[in-house]
Amino acid sequence: MGFSYVVAVAVLLSSSLIFFGIVYSDFVHTETQINDAQHNSNSQNYDYMNSKVIVDNYSYAASGSNFTVTMNVTNTGSVTLNLNHTNLLVNGTMVNFTYENQYLFPLGNDTIQFTTGAGSHNVEMVFSTGYEKFEKVVIS
Question: Residue 36 is part of which domain span?
Answer without folding.
Answer: 1-49
